[in-house]
């Protein structure tokens, strides 16, 4: 049977998480199932799906990993993880029993062909016993260095397709370490799986507020006409974190903020803000438009990199009332490391809609708080009639803020007359909060994404050309940074909003960073 086409698949993006059409039973095989991601995110997400949207009765999980566990010991650990990390607590014993009966553990090394033979046998057995009809999702949740051997072994064992049902593969981030390795990984997967079988995860796309960017823009008539260079002065995208390394020094030293956050999450936010309306709401039409934005990004090369990017490392300081070490003092970090924990950059999108409008992106660890937002600042009115009357001597511009997390919502800042006999103008906000407008709790990003992968909807996953286009933009910066002197890596105090150089960088344009 041919693989089901992505375009034909129903799109739950349009319908919330409510499952209107029935899902076909399937097996999710998780490679690296004893790892952190599986326990913190994947198992709790699957359990919540089982709880709220009854997954098909035969839905099964095969946990494929190296440690010597049995079905029972793995189920016990899964229960502990769900108890700890699930959105819905306490665990419902009936739902858990039924969910747990579908969890199986397969111990194997990732390079051992015999493991894949056993996997094949187990999957066939589950097809018989649980009615999963040959429908399979392979989830790569191992360190990326193991992806190639797993993919190759899946192919060698003939597990990349089967005659009875559909086969899909989900690939976790990081997708490549740079442009060359991302291309190579795409080639390796592409030799074994067809593009429509491949689901590259960027968990930001599973966030409700991120999906709402397009709904806000395209389901309302009043914003799109002003969503362009005629009315927008600039855009600021901020993803600030108060956390530090969280025990991930090994990974982070090799990654840094540009690979960890800009190449994926932040460029994804930028594409959703900047893209043209797609011709249809399906995986390929949406991604076609996102890719065009990435291709239109003005490449930063040579001196442009120095002038348009700031990188920095956190020094010691205080975050959330706790004293924290500097990056170079963190365990597992080289004392001479130049890995950046903060990046600010300015980029332009060279197309008719956005030419000349700067997009400022900034992200960092050990900043004062966790907050992600997109702020669209509009131009001032053509003639400022009230400039002598407001309190500060200047009326503030309109800003539309899409608050991604926390306190999810949207606010519009505008000037209003202060009640009184004189003419004073002050900025006020018109606010929408998810929390007060909707009673329904927001699903976790992974719930949405796992469900979409079961439905065969790849709208919220990144496509091959998209990942490569994002890497192309970032690669130029990486190349330049590699050759730049060490003193181009600035330092900022932990708990501050980043290095002074980042403030100066935006002041040069006569603008300032928002304090979210
Ligand atoms: C991950 C990064 O992809 O995203 C982490 O590797 C980062 O370093 C995390 O902390 C942020 O995700 P969220 O959902 O907490 O904003």
Automatic annotation (TrEMBL):
<keyword id="KW-0560">Oxidoreductase</keyword>
<comment type="function">
    <text>Catalyzes the oxidation of glucose 6-phosphate to 6-phosphogluconolactone.</text>
</comment>
<feature type="domain" description="Glucose-6-phosphate dehydrogenase C-terminal">
    <location>
        <begin position="214"/>
        <end position="514"/>
    </location>
</feature>
<feature type="active site" description="Proton acceptor">
    <location>
        <position position="265"/>
    </location>
</feature>
<dbReference type="GO" id="GO:0004345">
    <property type="term" value="F:glucose-6-phosphate dehydrogenase activity"/>
</dbReference>
<keyword id="KW-0119">Carbohydrate metabolism</keyword>
<dbReference type="GO" id="GO:0005829">
    <property type="term" value="C:cytosol"/>
</dbReference>
<feature type="binding site">
    <location>
        <position position="207"/>
    </location>
    <ligand>
        <name>substrate</name>
    </ligand>
</feature>
<feature type="binding site">
    <location>
        <position position="241"/>
    </location>
    <ligand>
        <name>substrate</name>
    </ligand>
</feature>
<comment type="pathway">
    <text>Carbohydrate degradation; pentose phosphate pathway; D-ribulose 5-phosphate from D-glucose 6-phosphate (oxidative stage): step 1/3.</text>
</comment>
<dbReference type="InterPro" id="IPR019796">
    <property type="entry name" value="G6P_DH_AS"/>
</dbReference>
<feature type="binding site">
    <location>
        <position position="260"/>
    </location>
    <ligand>
        <name>substrate</name>
    </ligand>
</feature>
<dbReference type="InterPro" id="IPR022674">
    <property type="entry name" value="G6P_DH_NAD-bd"/>
</dbReference>
<dbReference type="InterPro" id="IPR001282">
    <property type="entry name" value="G6P_DH"/>
</dbReference>
<keyword id="KW-0313">Glucose metabolism</keyword>
<dbReference type="GO" id="GO:0006006">
    <property type="term" value="P:glucose metabolic process"/>
</dbReference>
<comment type="similarity">
    <text>Belongs to the glucose-6-phosphate dehydrogenase family.</text>
</comment>
<dbReference type="GO" id="GO:0050661">
    <property type="term" value="F:NADP binding"/>
</dbReference>
<feature type="binding site">
    <location>
        <position position="365"/>
    </location>
    <ligand>
        <name>substrate</name>
    </ligand>
</feature>
<dbReference type="Pfam" id="PF02781">
    <property type="entry name" value="G6PD_C"/>
</dbReference>
<dbReference type="InterPro" id="IPR022675">
    <property type="entry name" value="G6P_DH_C"/>
</dbReference>
<feature type="binding site">
    <location>
        <position position="203"/>
    </location>
    <ligand>
        <name>substrate</name>
    </ligand>
</feature>
<dbReference type="Pfam" id="PF00479">
    <property type="entry name" value="G6PD_N"/>
</dbReference>
<dbReference type="GO" id="GO:0009051">
    <property type="term" value="P:pentose-phosphate shunt, oxidative branch"/>
</dbReference>
<protein>
    <recommendedName>
        <fullName>Glucose-6-phosphate 1-dehydrogenase</fullName>
        <ecNumber>1.1.1.49</ecNumber>
    </recommendedName>
</protein>
<feature type="binding site">
    <location>
        <position position="173"/>
    </location>
    <ligand>
        <name>NADP(+)</name>
    </ligand>
</feature>
<dbReference type="InterPro" id="IPR036291">
    <property type="entry name" value="NAD(P)-bd_dom_sf"/>
</dbReference>
<keyword id="KW-0521">NADP</keyword>
<feature type="binding site">
    <location>
        <position position="66"/>
    </location>
    <ligand>
        <name>NADP(+)</name>
    </ligand>
</feature>
<feature type="domain" description="Glucose-6-phosphate dehydrogenase NAD-binding">
    <location>
        <begin position="29"/>
        <end position="212"/>
    </location>
</feature>
């Amino acid at each position: 049977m041919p693989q089901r086409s992505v375009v034909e698949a129903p799109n739950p993006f349009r319908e919330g998480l409510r499952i209107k059409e029935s899902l076909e039973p399937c097996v999710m095989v998780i490679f690296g199932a004893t790892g952190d991601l599986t326990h913190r995110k994947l198992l709790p997400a699957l359990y919540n799906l089982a709880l709220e949207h009854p997954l098909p009765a035969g839905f099964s999980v095969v946990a494929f990993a190296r440690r010597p566990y049995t079905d029972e010991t793995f189920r016990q650990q899964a229960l502990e993880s769900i108890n700890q990390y699930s959105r819905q607590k306490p665990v419902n014993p009936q739902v858990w029993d039924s969910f747990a009966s579908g969890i199986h553990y397969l111990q194997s090394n990732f390079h051992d062909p015999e493991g894949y033979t056993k996997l094949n046998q187990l999957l066939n057995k589950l097809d018989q016993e649980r009615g999963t009809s040959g429908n399979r999702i392979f989830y790569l949740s191992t360190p990326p260095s193991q992806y190639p051997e797993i993919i190759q072994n899946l192919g060698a064992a003939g597990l990349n397709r089967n005659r009875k049902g559909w086969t899909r593969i989900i690939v976790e981030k990081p997708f490549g370490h740079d442009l060359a390795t991302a291309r190579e990984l795409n080639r390796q997967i592409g030799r074994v799986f067809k593009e429509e079988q491949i689901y590259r995860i960027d968990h930001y796309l599973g966030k409700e507020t991120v999906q709402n960017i397009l709904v806000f823009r395209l389901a309302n008539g009043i914003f799109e006409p002003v969503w362009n260079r005629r009315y927008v002065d600039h855009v600021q995208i901020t993803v600030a974190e108060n956390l530090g390394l969280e025990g991930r020094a090994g990974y982070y030293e090799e990654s840094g903020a540009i690979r960890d956050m800009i190449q994926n999450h932040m460029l994804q936010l930028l594409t959703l803000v900047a893209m043209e309306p797609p011709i249809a709401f399906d995986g390929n039409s949406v991604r076609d438009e996102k890719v065009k934005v990435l291709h239109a990004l003005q490449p930063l090369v040579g001196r442009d990199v120095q002038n348009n990017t700031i990188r920095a490392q956190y020094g010691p300081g205080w975050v959330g009332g706790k004293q924290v070490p500097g990056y170079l003092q963190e365990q597992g970090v080289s004392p001479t490391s130049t890995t950046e924990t903060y990046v600010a950059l300015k980029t332009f999108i060279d197309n008719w809609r956005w030419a000349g409008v700067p997009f400022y992106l900034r992200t960092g660890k050990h900043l004062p708080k966790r907050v992600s937002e997109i702020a669209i600042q509009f131009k001032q009115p053509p003639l400022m009639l009230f400039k002598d009357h407001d309190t500060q001597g200047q009326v503030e511009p309109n800003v539309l803020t899409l608050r991604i997390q926390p306190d999810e919502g949207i606010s519009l800042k505008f000037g209003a007359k202060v009640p009184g006999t004189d003419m004073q103008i002050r900025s006020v906000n018109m606010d929408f909060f998810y929390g007060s407008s909707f009673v329904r709790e927001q699903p976790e990003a992974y719930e949405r994404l796992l469900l979409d992968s079961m439905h065969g909807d790849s709208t919220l996953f990144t496509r091959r050309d998209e990942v490569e286009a994002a890497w192309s933009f970032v690669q130029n910066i990486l190349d330049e940074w590699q050759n730049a002197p060490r003193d181009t890596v600035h330092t900022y105090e932990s708990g501050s909003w980043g290095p002074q150089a980042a403030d100066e960088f935006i002041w040069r344009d006569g603008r300032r960073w928002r304090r979210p």
